[in-house]
Structure formats: structure tokens, C-alpha cells
Design a protein that fits this description.
The protein contains one helix and 23 strands. The chain is mainly β. The protein starts with 14 loop residues before the first helix and ends in a 9-residue tail after the last strand.
């Protein structure tokens, strides 16, 4: 053996990366009196992909649609993408380097299968949590939106090369922050209530309540019955997750001037993203932001977001 078996095990790589790794380690040149160099020459026919391999999965939003993109190498022979052993529908044609599927409804073990051979397993991690926006006005006036979030992300560490070279060490790394994919059951509820009486002839009242689905894109959000959505990224432990969810909800404003249909939004005072610390076990830690104007107190609270289907530390990467 050229070196001990890596821990965690190395996922499959195509022949070019393996060949370059051998050359980098000096294993492509003989050590005896007769110097010989290993050389690769392709003859007739095409190379065969022995075992498919997944590098990583990510989520892509185009317009109002979001898809999951899987990067790796699995050859030109069509196969299938499995999540927990069940096929995921492809979006578009089979591609030997990138496969696109619909966003799954939950997390679990992701694999690509070609000619009966399964790739390395990759865990799609699923997060659940909530973001609550509250406006507290004078008297008993109050407006609130609570977003219940369920989203997926691939936070497993992986190798980008076979073995090691002068730039990358022979170990899996986190690399860049990972995009999240919003699951279809994410939603929001809202309510407006209360009254403030300035004088015997001048008062303000807020009213209204309802719910709506959240989407991966604000472009598809509606305001007639409420709407919202967004996305973000999750970084490694000790860093942060950036969440950019915004919601808008209707309510009725009754005042001395009459009855008006209005909209309130979580972006009115908190247009900036939420930065949640990534704690031990990839838990996204909860927090609070507040702002105060002359008549209204604004508050944004987000809960701890606990993950399911964490990366398997012993899986090939």
C-alpha cells in the first residue's frame, strides 16, 4: 500500500484524479535501476465508469422555481437518484456530471445508482424551526407573523481530489457555505389585534388573521392573502447560517379616517438577514433582534433549529 487507508474512507474518483494523485506521490515512476514511468493511453472505445460518486448536493432557485442539483461523476449511462431508497424525479436529461431533481419533501440518504452500482451515500440534512416577527404599538395594538420553516441542506464534508496534492490535504473539508432548499410544508400564520384610544373621538384598531404557504422565492409571494419566502446558507460548526426569509400579511386598519386594508411585513425594520450561530451538532442557535420607533416596538425572534439526518462520520467522502 502507498499509504494507510484514509479515515473516513475515500469515495470513488475518476481515473484522471487517481492517476494524478499517483504521479504527485511519486508512485508513477519506478524506483529501480531501470527508470520507467506509468503512462495512460486510451485506445478504441469509451472509458467505463465503474462506480458512481457524489461530490455534493445544492439547491438552485431560478425565477419562482427551486430544484436540487447533485454534483459528481456517474458516466453517460442513465441511472437514477434515490433518497432513502426511493427514486427522485429528474428535471431534464441525464448528465454525467450534474443531475437535477425536484426538491424532496424531507431529508435522508441520497445515492446515485447506475447499472445496479450505488454511489457513496450522502445525507441530506433537514432543519425545522420558526421565525416570529412582532410589532407592538400603543395601547393593546399588536401585529405578528410566525414563519414555520422546514428546509434541507447538504452539510457533509467531502474531498475534492483523490488523495492529496500541494493545495488540498488528504481529508474531507467543508469548503463553501451550503445553500438551503425550502420544503413545501413551510408556512406562516399572522394576526393583528388591539386598539389605541387617543381621545373620545380618535382611536386606532388593528384586526385580521390567516395563514399562507412559504415559497423558495419572493417572486412568487402574494400579498392578497399573505405571502413570503426566502432562503439562505449554512456554514460549518462555529460559523453562522444566513437566513433571508421575508413575509407579508394583510390586516385591517380602522381609524378616524375610515377602514383601510393594509399590509405589514417582517422587512419593515429587519430587512437584513438573520445570522444564526452554527453550534455543536450543527444546531442553528436561536436569537432576537429589536428596534424601537416613537410609537412601535419591533421584535424578531428565531428559535433553535435542530437538524435531522446529520452526515455519517464513517461514510466515504
Amino acid at each position: 500500500l502507498l499509504r494507510p487507508v484514509p479515515n473516513p474512507p475515500q469515495r470513488p474518483f475518476d481515473w484522471e484524479l487517481v492517476f494524478y494523485d499517483l504521479d504527485f506521490r511519486g508512485a508513477a515512476v519506478s524506483k529501480g535501476k531501470q527508470v520507467a514511468r506509468m503512462k495512460y493511453t486510451q485506445l478504441k472505445g469509451d472509458l467505463t465508469m465503474l462506480v458512481p460518486t457524489i461530490e455534493f448536493a445544492t439547491f438552485v432557485t431560478k425565477g419562482t422555481e427551486q430544484t436540487m442539483s447533485i454534483q459528481g461523476h456517474w458516466g453517460t449511462d442513465p441511472g437514477e437518484v434515490l433518497l432513502n431508497g426511493n427514486p427522485l424525479p429528474l428535471v431534464g436529461a441525464w448528465n454525467e456530471r450534474t443531475l437535477t431533481t425536484k426538491v424532496p419533501s424531507g431529508g435522508g440518504t441520497l445515492q446515485v445508482v447506475v447499472n445496479g452500482l450505488k454511489s457513496n451515500p450522502v445525507q441530506l440534512t433537514e432543519y425545522s424551526g420558526s421565525i416570529t416577527y412582532t410589532e407592538t404599538g400603543q395601547g393593546t395594538l399588536k401585529k405578528r407573523i410566525t414563519m414555520t420553516l422546514n428546509f434541507l441542506t447538504d452539510i457533509h464534508k467531502y474531498r475534492v481530489v483523490s488523495g492529496a496534492n500541494a493545495v488540498w490535504k488528504d481529508e474531507p473539508l467543508f469548503w463553501l457555505p451550503r445553500a438551503i432548499g425550502l420544503i413545501a410544508n413551510s408556512n406562516a400564520t399572522y394576526e393583528a389585534s388591539g386598539k389605541y384610544k387617543r381621545s373620545s373621538t380618535d382611536s386606532t384598531m388593528w384586526s385580521g388573521a390567516g395563514s399562507f404557504a412559504l415559497t423558495a422565492s419572493l417572486l412568487s409571494a402574494t400579498t392578497a392573502g399573505g405571502g413570503g419566502g426566502g432562503g439562505g446558507v449554512v456554514d460549518d460548526i462555529g460559523k453562522s447560517a444566513m437566513l433571508t426569509f421575508i413575509a407579508m400579511a394583510p390586516y385591517t386598519l380602522t381609524s378616524i379616517t375610515g377602514v383601510h386594508e393594509e399590509v405589514f411585513t417582517t422587512a419593515s425594520q429587519f430587512a437584513q438577514p438573520i445570522y444564526a450561530e452554527v453550534g455543536s451538532g450543527y444546531v442553528l442557535k436561536g436569537g432576537t433582534m429589536t428596534a424601537v420607533s416613537s410609537e412601535i416596538t419591533y421584535r424578531l425572534d428565531w428559535s433553535d433549529m435542530t437538524p435531522k439526518y446529520l452526515p455519517d462520520p464513517s461514510a466515504p467522502r
